[in-house]
5-methylthioadenosine/S-adenosylhomocysteine deaminase
Amino acid sequence: MSILIKNGYVVYGENLEVIKADVLIESNKIVEVAKNINKSADTVIDAKGKVVSPGFVNLHTHSPMGLFRGLADDLPLMDWLREHIWPKEAKLTREYTKVGAYLGALEMIKSGTTTFVDMYFFMDAVAEVTLESGLRGYLSYGMIDLGDPEKTEKEVNEALRIMKFIDELDSDRVHFVFGPHAPYTCSIALLKEVRRLANEHGKLITIHVSETMAEIGQIAERYGKSPVVLLDDIGFLADDVIIAHGVWLDSRDIQILARHGVTVAHNPASNMKLASGVMPLQRLLNAGVNVGLGTDGSASNNNLDMLEEMKLAALLHKVHNLNPTVADARTVFKMATQNGARALGLKAGMIRESYLADIAIIDFNKPHLRPINNVISHLVYSANGNDVETTIVDGKVLMLDRELLTLDEEKILNDTERVIGELT
Ligand SMILES: CSC[C@H]1O[C@@H](n2cnc3c(O)ncnc32)[C@H](O)[C@@H]1O
Ligand SMILES: [Zn+2]
């Protein structure tokens, strides 16, 4: 199968050069980017007045949590989790979670996300949805043992069951990742076992780290050190680890993350909404740490829109540093695309020959995106997910002119209302 995208403003290569050109996709790869490509293709997309952008990599989410959107707002993390979210999650079934996963997949495709890193329950159901939706997913079962050895074994067994399930799908798009929830919910034994298993099976790890001051206090009380020093001391950290949040990091923590090649998934909306704090973006980037962008779940954001997330990241760090040159549009755009792909070892996140054909086409024929003075600026500061018109993953069109081709939008919206009626 081939796709020819004609006459768009193409965000090209690592340096985000914007060129008026055509893009030719064959099978799942970008094979040519040039002016006036004169070749036939199975599908031709007219991108006049539109921007051909790399698809977005959401480096941290809990995709089924859209089910809980709006049910617990305006709370700090620990109250939000313990008093509201965890009691609701205790009632989740595989069927309910699957409906939530469909809702999340729908939202991501409609806002130009092509790859996501997920942590949740019933991940075999999430894997089925990911496969069907056409998205690229890195899926982890969120492990929590609260120091109970019996629970440690159960959680490891469930993670291994999900790993086997996902590996047997034998998909290039759907991958298993280990997901110990956080240093405050996982024992040292569990964290060490995850490290051992990730080495043995060659899998990535994702984990919430240093999100709130409460966490820093809890870990200091329990272990007498910071969460990052703790993870370093037990040999957990390596370049296959993606930590979510990294808000409360001191200089020593940042040096440790840089030394091990750890990636940080920044979640500005969630950090602001839960009032967790402001992560030290500039200091992390200066130390050479790879920083990607995530939305966190839809109950703490409250959506999965990576275009909105870019704007929030840029604005947050400008005002926090009282410096408008911090978190400039190009830096933030790279975080949302190529930095995320780098964390996953994925040849994606750029429009470039031989890269995976993961693309979002954004319609600039709109008042808030004219005149087209600066494409990257418009993508970060002016656009939002509703401006995404077409989403392509692995050389397959998932949404064309805002029409979903892999999922039944109306059914998903109806199922979501039914399920939440039964759950609450
Ligand atoms: C065990 S599956 C994942 C687990 O994480 C919870 N969660 C959602 N957002 C956050 C966050 O910002 N910090 C910590 N934990 C979070 C989610 O509700 C699930 O219980
Ligand atoms: Zn999270």
